[in-house]
Amino acid sequence: MNLMCPARLIVLPPGYRGRLTGERVARVYASPEAEDQAGLLAGDLGVQLMALPSGPGDEVLRDIADQHRGETVAVVAPTLDLPIVLPAGRVVIEHDGDGWSILPSPNEVTLAAYEQAAERFRDSIPRDANGPLLDLAADHLGPGSTVLELGSGTGRDALALEERGYRVLRTDAAWSFVEMMRADGFEADQLNALVDDFGGPFDLVFADAVFLHFDADQLAVVLRKAREAAPLLAFTTREGDGDEWSNRFLDLPRHFTMWQEGPLRQLLADTGWTVARLERHQSRVGGWFYVLATA
After folding, report:
1. Alpha-carbon distance 140 to 70, whole Å?
2. pLDDT of residue 21
3. Is residue 140 domain-shared with residue 280, that is, in the same domain?
4. Contact 253, 246 (CB under 8 A)
5. What's the maximum distance between 2 C-alpha atoms anywhere in the chain?
6. Whether residue 75 is found in the same domain as residue 134
7. What is the CATH number of the domain that holds 129?
8. 223 Cβ neighbours under 8 A, 6+ residues apart
9. What's the pTM value of the predicted model, to 2 decimals?
10. Residue ranges for the chain with pLDDT beneath 70
């Protein structure tokens, strides 16, 4: 155990559906209201489950942090009595001896990588648009339809969509990509799918290699927003188990969540979508799902 490093506490709300398979978690702590859920999590991770009081406060969590310096533990509780306000969803906090701090989320770290390496990303991906995903959308979309593209990136798919006769709103959470598209002569807006409104209505929400950066709870939020914005959704995401951090291509950390077909279909159904088409494709990094869904 490293006595100099603070502990990382992954605070999970009750009902959290993401997985922590990519984390080295030393122990799971849970209040009585969350013991069943936390027990399943501890079993998945192969670690011990420890009890917490209801609404654990600053002193209880500081004791946990002191016991686990240099380690990561999970805390599952409906409420925490802390001197800082925690955002909704999965949050990682640590105590440095003076107070609590909130650490950047995996999605924030990933977004920072894109901000720093937009040009390197453009050089690392194929120049051609994602034809199979475009073809899926075209099966249900007539010329002149409006498309909200999430995560436009370099703008390659948006250009191909426009060449097929669609009107596209280019967006990306990374300002570096927005600037890149504007420098290429296109209108583009900054839009963070997790926190911003989608606007609309549109005929289609299109998201190529975007949803793989969201955990299950985050993706549920995005899918519900997409359903409010358009009756049609076309997207790709990674096939596999769990999640991973990777430095490939950009030499900067990005976080990826993989999916199995059954849970992906269930999440779509839970958020009001019906799968019209689901295809599997292979790439240099593994398997992908190509999905067309209707509201």
Report:
1. 52
2. 62
3. yes
4. yes
5. 63
6. no
7. 3.40.50.150
8. 233, 267, 268, 271, 272, 273
9. 0.84
10. 1-4, 18, 21-22
